[in-house]
Design goal:
11 helices; elongated; alpha/beta; 275 residues
């Protein structure tokens, strides 16, 4: 049996008794960093089970190794360095392997940094979009960033400290300058910090202050300026741009960018008008 076990994101007191029981009883513990998990086990007074290194860079070979252990009747717990495995974590691939091979697995719930930060943010929790880590750079990062203005719910991102300044600049460029943002770090730890401001204010703040620690960023949707533009104006722009030979998708992008209206709503309106 494979157990995906949630571990503390900071405060050791957040581990569940069930998680401790499972980790202490399994034959192997698959973990991102054997040193980090070794320290965790020591602090929890759990004898160091046989640890298997399983992370993003060796998940193909080690995933097959874990599958073979499971097939041979061994019990394996998979943990991340902090929080829930399979959430922005290669445990996702291990779950897929188990399903493919018909192997039994279960989840032992635990802390999740994204949900913890969302609750701390003060932003809407009714609906939210979990983006996780953006690509580090290049066209893939630009592609994901360009999608964010389309979401109408709170957006949750993970980001490294050395990219926080860059992220604030990128978000402002995508129209989030006036959106509220919550920047959470050291969650559940002694020096827990949550900063709540707008994206533009955060950009100014980090010009003077060095970002430290891994961040969970909760972001309000783009502040729409739709009230400033009536239906007649938008429909006139759709006709004007269409007469120039522009495709509907591009029309929606331009009008959404100019007005702050939803790209999807503009696209649907254009299709309805021009059919």
């Amino acid at each position: 049996m494979l157990y995906l076990v949630g571990t503390p994101i900071g405060n050791l007191g957040d581990i569940s008794s069930r998680a401790m029981e499972i980790i202490s009883q399994v034959d192997y513990v698959a973990c991102e960093d054997t040193r980090v998990t070794g320290i965790l086990l020591k602090n929890l007074n759990i004898s160091a089970n046989r640890l298997i290194s399983y992370h993003e860079h060796n998940k193909v070979s080690k995933g097959q190794e874990i599958v073979e252990l499971l097939k041979n009747g061994f019990n394996v717990a998979q943990v991340s360095d902090a929080g829930m495995p399979a959430v922005s974590d290669p445990g996702e691939d291990l779950v897929a392997l188990c399903i493919k091979e018909g192997l039994e697995f279960t989840v032992v719930p635990g802390p999740v940094a994204a949900v913890t930060a969302l609750v701390m943010s003060g932003l809407s929790t009714r609906y939210y979009h979990f983006e996780g880590f953006l690509p580090n750079s290049g066209s893939d990062r630009k592609k994901r960033l360009s999608k964010l203005p389309e979401y109408e719910e709170t957006i949750v991102l993970y980001e490294a400290p050395h990219r926080i300044r860059k992220l604030m600049s990128e978000l402002a460029a995508e129209g989030f300058g006036d959106s509220r943002i919550s920047l959470c770090r050291e969650l559940t730890k002694k020096y827990e910090e949550v900063l709540r401001m707008t994206v533009n204010e955060a950009a100014s703040y980090y010009e003077k202050n060095e970002p430290k620690g891994e961040f969970v960023v909760c972001l309000e949707p783009v502040v729409r300026k739709q009230a400033e533009f009536d239906d007649a104006y938008i429909e006139g722009e759709i006709r004007r741009l269409r007469e120039s030979g522009m495709p509907v998708k591009k029309i929606a992008e331009i009008i959404a960018s100019d007005t702050g209206c939803s790209k999807k709503e503009i696209y649907a309106r254009a299709v309805s008008m021009l059919k």
